[in-house]
Amino acid sequence: MPAMSLRGATEVRPVGDGRFEADIHPGWDIMGNANGGYLLAMVARAAAVTASKPDPVSVTGHFLAPGKPGPVTIVTDLVRTGRRFSTVTATMSTADRPMLTMVGSFADLGIGGGDDPVERHVTGPPHLPPPEDCVAVEPTETFPPPFVANVDLRIHPDDVPFVNGPTGRMVIRGWFRLPGDEPVDPFGLILAADAFPPSIFNGDLPVAWTPTLELTVHVRTRPSDAWYAVVVSTRFVTGGFLEEDAEVWDRSGRLVAQGRQLALVPTG
Amino acid sequence: MPAMSLRGATEVRPVGDGRFEADIHPGWDIMGNANGGYLLAMVARAAAVTASKPDPVSVTGHFLAPGKPGPVTIVTDLVRTGRRFSTVTATMSTADRPMLTMVGSFADLGIGGGDDPVERHVTGPPHLPPPEDCVAVEPTETFPPPFVANVDLRIHPDDVPFVNGPTGRMVIRGWFRLPGDEPVDPFGLILAADAFPPSIFNGDLPVAWTPTLELTVHVRTRPSDAWYAVVVSTRFVTGGFLEEDAEVWDRSGRLVAQGRQLALVPTG
Asked: How far apart are CA B171 and CA B169, in angstroms?
């Protein structure tokens, strides 16, 4: 299946009263379930319309049921309109049941903050060879999943869990781009924060899948590059849960987005 | 003002149809605005009733207006009931306006996960002298704020920004306890994740306050200690925002909760 643009695949159609119609497109799935970042980007796009602000600043989605291809409805509710931030809740549902519920604050990231009078990065971007020297992730029927046909992922040669086996270090570094050089907007950063294989696959633990309970993405600035350096990592597997953190960096060495998700650790 | 129990200060009274009445109590404020973790704990307590599950697993609050002492209403909405998790949205409002909106998933953390067949901690708890050798944080009219009378905070002697000046390292390590040995339940962990002074106060940057836009707390397990070791840290100050991460550890060296907030960096 040829790559579909993220913009096309997350299109939402307002039908009045804060309601939107949309479609979960085929090909964005992992083992039959749509990628969480893709779904959250779609819901955030609808919520931004209701917020009357262009950019997601902080969005959190709770995943309630697997996303299968087909029509969905997104119901948004404007909780507060502010001068700088507006906050919206939204729920995406099929005809049968709710699938994803979100809370997010939206702003115009083109206004203010751009001068960065106070700026500090304690740690820097991941060390990565250029994209052409990394390992391109090609889709298969199972793993890597069909979803990766819609993103251009290049993984650091040292971090590829499905080539040489787990590294023992729960970190995956790589490059993210949208195919066909589609510009990455802030909604694309939501996808970038959830596009890589789970870093626990490098952890030498008996974990084959990690369903996401909740994903939060913070967008710091409007992106302007084609390629983004991403690092995903897990530090704590305990209580039947793990967190996966994502950092998304532009090529100037600036953090543009951060993600954190809480996932389940199914065993047995 | 004597310390008030967290349980008393976050009491919520159901009035039917998923609505609750509650009070923001005086003395929980920082420069006149109630602590965000305190408010989120209160909203989560109401949401857990609606979820019919005892424990918050992942809760996210967006802060819409400062919390002043006085009566509030919390309106909750059950988005999904599941066997293991139930998901609720909730908004706390004064008579005038919404103050805090939340999405959270709730479970019974006493069921499952407790055996931890898969467990990994990549990093450990913060290195801390015993509580009696740390610096007790005493409330003042300004900073440290009145709020700290309601929590027992002991900061690592090397990390106290308001004694020797900023350390230059945006990290604060310390112990957290509720006064009078009130047991810390999972709602108390929400407070613990937002109780310490902002780590940016150790950053030698011209930032005097950091209003929180959003706070997410993950609770991994039901706590059972009196004292918890906490580390708060900031790595990225950029785009006019900073993240503050919190880890809450029990005395057996197990991570019990994680927090991340997105805060504004006001300048000028």
From this structure: 6
Distinct helix (H) and strand (E) counts, chain A: 4, 17
pLDDT tens track for A47-79: 999 999 999 999 999 999 999 999 999 999 999
Q: Is the pLDDT of residue A163 over 80?
A: no
Is the CB of A213 inside 8 Å of chain B's CB atoms?
yes
Query: What is the C-alpha to C-alpha distance for residues A119 and A42, in angstroms, rounded to an integer?
Result: 31
**What ranges in chain B are assigned the alpha helix state H?**
6-9, 36-51, 161-164, 186-192
Q: Which helix (H) or strand (E) holds A57?
A: strand A55-63
**Does the CB of B222 have a partner CB in chain A at under 8 Å?**
no
Whether A51 and A106 have beta carbons less than 8 Å apart is answered as: yes
Q: What's the whole-number average pLDDT of chain A?
A: 93
The answer to whether residue A87 neighbours chain B at the CB level (below 8 Å) is: yes
Nearest to A7 by CA among A151, A147, A185: A185
Tokens of A245: 């953190």
What topology does CATH give the domain B6-109+127-264? Answer: Porin (2.40.160)
> What residues does each domain of chain A span?
6-109+127-264
Strands B55-63 and B212-219, by their bridges, are antiparallel
| ipTM of this complex prediction, to 2 decimal places | 0.96
Buried b (16+ CB within 10 A) or exposed e, A79-96: bbeeebbbbbbbbbbeee
pLDDT of amino acid A267: 67
Q: For residue A156, what pLDDT is reported?
A: 97
CB A169 within 8 A of CB A205: no
**Higher confidence at residue A103 or residue B139?**
A103
Q: How far apart are CA B176 and CA B154, in angstroms?
A: 7
CA distance B233 to chain A (A): 10
| Strand segments (E) across chain B | 12-16, 19-24, 29-30, 33-34, 55-63, 70-81, 86-93, 98-107, 120-121, 135-136, 152-155, 171-177, 212-219, 228-233, 236-238, 241-249, 255-264
Tens of pLDDT along A246-263?
999 999 999 999 999 999
Given an 8 Å threshold on Cβ–Cβ distance, is A236 in contact with B216? no
Q: What's the rounded Cα separation, in Å, for the pair A222 and A114?
A: 10
Q: How deeply is A128 buried, as exposed, middle or buried, from its count of CB atoms within 10 A (0-12, 13-18, 19+)?
A: buried
Q: What is the mean pLDDT of residues B199-228?
A: 93
pLDDT at A90 over 90: yes
